[in-house]
Amino acid sequence: MREIEELGLPDFCRKPTLVLGIGNLLFGDDGFGCAVVEYVEEHYAVPETVCLLDAGTSVRKLLFTLCLSPIRPHRLLILDAIDVGRTPGELFEINPAEIPPVKLDDFSLHQLPTSNLLHELQESCGVEVRVLACQTGPLPQEISPGLSPAIRAVVPHAAQWLMGEYLPEGHQRRDDLISKRESGLASVPRDPPTLGPRTCASRR
Asked: What confidence tens digit (pLDDT) does each residue in 154-170 have?
């Protein structure tokens, strides 16, 4: 670990698990991934082994750095909003190779160079790459910050899925930890959360 730290690499290269929320907060539901990251940071205690980043529209630069880095995370999760004709607010996993090529802004994940970087990380660098997607509502053609009600409602469900998949044992909500400290109770591990009717589809 000391040798790794001496390399001066950023946390997103050094930590075993990397979670990237991507999208443009200025264009409605496109900000889904960023909103999930913000929710997790506010409501959960994220362990030191996980790097959680709101990558916004800068995901390409981060992925390029990962490809060149001598040290990389073992697992990479992308959180993003995608339009594939499903019900708005539906959460599902999508194979990185099947990400649709069209999206609102030119800095998006759904551009060929970025998709190639994901493929490189997965196939050549040995990084497990997963994409948790949310079906968007209609995206605005001009600046319009804020998620639609349907997308905003599933942000907590996506956060629960993330914590259950990547931290299935002992993950705690921040408010639970505060309550336990105040009452003097020991922390009690929770069962992995479920998404109810909006269960993520199986990984392809």
From this structure: 999 999 999 988 876 54
pLDDT in tens, 47-82: 889 999 999 888 888 998 999 999 999 999 999 998
pTM over 0.90: no
Give the number of other Cβ atoms within 10 Å of residue 35's Cβ: 25
- Provide the token pair at 163: 């914590």
Contact criterion met (CB below 8 Å) for 148 and 69: no
**Residue 169 vs residues 20, 45, 165: alpha-carbon distances, Å:** 21, 13, 10
Angle made by CA atoms 73, 91, 191, in degrees to the nearest 5? 70
**7 neighbors 70 (Cβ within 8 angstroms):** yes
The alpha-carbon radius of gyration of the chain (Å, integer) is: 17
Are residues 44 and 166 in contact, defined by beta-carbon separation less than 8 angstroms? no
Token digits of residue 185: 């109770």
